[in-house]
Amino acid sequence: MTEFKTHIMVCGGTGCRASQSEKIRQNLNTAIQEYGLEDDVQVVMTGCFGFCEKGPVVKIIPDNTFYVQVKPEDADLIIQEHIIKGRKVSHLLYEDPKTKEMVSDSKHMDFYKKQIRIALRNCGFINPENIDEYIARDGYAALGKVLTEMTPEQVIAEMKQSGLRGRGGGGFPTGLKWEITRKSQNDQKYVVCNADEGDPGAFMDRSILEGDPNSVIEAMAICGYCIGANQGLVYIRAEYPLAIDRLRTALKQAREYGLLGKDILGTGFNFDIELRYGAGAFVCGEETALIHSMEGLRGEPTFKPPFPAVSGYKGKPTNVNNVETFANVPVIINKGANWFNKIGSEKSKGTKVFALAGKINNVGLIEVPMGTTLREVIYEIGGGIKDGKKFKAVQTGGPSGGCLTEKHLDTPIDFDNLIAAGSMMGSGGMIVMDEDSCMVSIAKFYLEFTLDESCGKCAPCRIGNKRLHEILNKITQGNGTKTDLDRLRLLGNVIKDCSLCGLGQTSPNPVLSTLTNFYNEYIDHVENHKCSAGQCKALLKYVIDPEICTGCTLCFRNCPVGAISGEKKSPHSIDQSLCIKCGACYEKCKFNAIRIA
Amino acid sequence: MPKIKIAENTVQLIREICTKYGNEEGELINVLHNVQDKLGYLPAEVQEVIARELNIPVARIYGVVTFYSFFSMLPKGEHPISVCMGTACYVRGSEQVLEEFKRQLKIDVGQTTPDGKFSLGSLRCVGACGLAPVVMVGEKVYGRVSPQQVRKILSDYIIGCPHSES
């Protein structure tokens, strides 16, 4: 094998590929050939680095130089300057927003300093399409160890000792789940990986599958060994074509290497994995719904018990775990439960991956120890709020979670603390909002999502959420009353108590948590008919201040509906009957002459 | 909806797909994925053929097709436009972008322009949250889209009249 002196890692995650990272890779290779460096430099297309805000990202190993927002035409410069002359291309380095200094390598970036990467350990380090690179980083060592040195009971004991809890949102102890499935007597059992990441704004599972598919395959085989299953199934969203591709490649290579299939590593253990495709239904993240979907039915949940561990896919005992949960397993086996359970908080061990998005400077994928505070995540890793605006809320747990406020900023993040604060961990979406976000609209937004995704099986969720949405709509239209707020709370609690599955039981959370934490904003909407964030269109009006307006005609030229009129160099005005309240004039005005009334 | 007649070779194609999956009813979702991949959509007539092949009631197929958002009973436009309505895109203003597409194309979400050129849809998170708000036209991803850019994006696909208002 050739020993390369330098490796150029190009991010091949969905975000960076959307900004032409594939072209960057091609151009780098062209330049390498042009300068005859084929034997010294290798370009590797990796999984997601996590720093999506500044993508496409290119990292140079061994010196860890971290180039951001690279364009395809920069490839030649990187080879000429960095590789040949040994000088860093300074304008492509990351500028620290606080010190305004260029940061030379990833180790010195605030974004990475507080992170501990376990589930994401290989994302951004290896080529996910080459199993050898996974093996070189201890890949399949855990499977080997389990099959040759440990009994299933020992593995389960190790998993229980590690304290790993389900990362899909439920937080159920993984070892215990495996044990229950192992104890179910049957001739056929199944291991299912839930890769139906439906939470909008969360993309950790996709990134793991795109960046390190083998870690999930290895863990599923370990699980199969423990519970006594020889068949695995990955239920993956059809909307993730790249992840599906990489998973297929990894499965093929694993079979070629004898790490899947019959008589794995000569131990007599058989295990193979098939893919099943989701078709866009959020409720299929719920395990009984997911199983029905795999059976070719509508993805409607059923009452538990019986739990899938007793009767799941095709009526056989089935163990369902999420992608991130599986990605932790090989590391726990390799490094030991006692290494893992020292990380994290008392009741939540290990790390959690979060997809940080919204009005924050560093949008991206991060992995931090449980117990890290929201403040550390938002201000240190996330780099604070965009455009220097004021923090208002952070939404965790997706459509099932709630909004947390400033007073929760110092809460250590773990499963139990987030629930106590009125939200939940969920799969790890973390959306930051600033003063321009209207909390009533946000609650309505999430409810629209739930309405769309409710399977319609049980009445509280199907009808109750519809009514909740109507009340919220009434409020954002300026027709709400104070009684409506009481109705929201009452109805929300009824839906929570009476719904069949997790979707319905948590669907009113965004409404209830914003009602609790932002009650004044609701009052403002219903009593003063005012939306201070300026988002509820029915409640706002754009007006031009004739004292400030210079008549530059910029707003006139940008108005898409011709609602603005006025002579050049004299104050303009907006015809309210034509105005569609798009805000284009407000954004364009250089003199702040346009106000939201 | 007007009844459409499907060609004999299309029926043959559907049969082949069903056979590939052993005509098993448990494989229904895989069959539907495959058929939609080839035909673009799943009209009632196609569902009838699948029902016969898998020996299940057509109502069950209709139930599945309408349950999952990925399946469509209507043909998509030549350039399907999807505006991401994931939370990250929403808080960065994707709703306004979607409104602007609706206004420019004069169609609602789920519809296709009369000339068959564009269809408009919303989707939940492409996972490119760093580029929010995101719009996809076919396979191409547009990042950090503002309502003002909508006309420009559409003009990329209206050949011959780059900036005309359609």
Walk me through what this model shows.
- The complex is a heterodimer of chains A (597) and B (166).
- Chain A is of the alpha/beta class and 597 residues long.
- Chain A is 39% helix and 16% strand.
- Chain A folds into five domains: 6-113, Glutaredoxin; 131-340, Rossmann fold (3-Layer(aba) Sandwich), CATH 3.40.50.11540; 351-434, Ubiquitin-like (UB roll), CATH 3.10.20.600; 439-527, Up-down Bundle (de novo design (two linked rop proteins)), CATH 1.20.1440; 541-596, Alpha-Beta Plaits.
- Chain A has 24 helices and 20 strands.
- Chain A starts with 5 loop residues before the first strand and ends with a strand.
- Chain B has two domains: 8-67; 79-155, Glutaredoxin (3-Layer(aba) Sandwich), CATH 3.40.30.
- Chain B has helices at 8-20, 28-39, 44-54, 58-67, 87-91, 94-105, 150-155; strands spanning 79-84, 118-123, 135-137, 140-142.
- Chain B has a four-stranded mixed sheet, with helices on one face.
- In chain B, a hairpin with a 2-residue loop joins strand 3 and strand 4 (140-142).
- In chain B, helix 1 (8-20) packs across helix 3 (44-54) and helix 3 (44-54) packs across helix 4.
- The two termini of chain B are 27 Å apart.
- Mean pLDDT of chain B is 88; it is low at 161-166.
- Chains A and B meet through helix 1, strand 10, strand 12, strand 16 and helix 17 of A and helix 2, helix 4, helix 5 and helix 6 of B.
Roughly how many Å apart are the termini of chain A?
Answer: 69 Å
Helix content of chain B: 40-55%
Strand order of the largest sheet of chain A: 9-10-8-7-11
Question: What is the CA-based Rg of chain A, rounded?
Answer: 26 Å
Question: Strands across the major sheet of chain B, in which order?
Answer: 2-1-3-4
**Helix residue percentage of chain A:** 25-40%
Strand content of chain A: 15-25%
Q: What is the count of distinct domains of chain B?
A: 2
User: How many structural domains of chain A?
Assistant: 5
Give the biggest beta sheet of chain B.
4 strands, mixed
Overall form of chain A: globular
Q: Rg of chain B to the nearest angstrom?
A: 18 Å
Q: Estimate the global geometry of chain B from the Cα principal axes.
A: elongated
Low-confidence stretches of chain A: none
Give a count of the beta strands of chain B, DSSP E runs of length 2 or more.
4
- Number of distinct helices of chain B: 7
Oligomer: heterodimer
Poorly predicted segments of chain B? 161-166
Return the CATH architecture of the largest domain in chain B.
3-Layer(aba) Sandwich
Q: Which topology of the largest domain in chain A does CATH recognise?
A: Rossmann fold
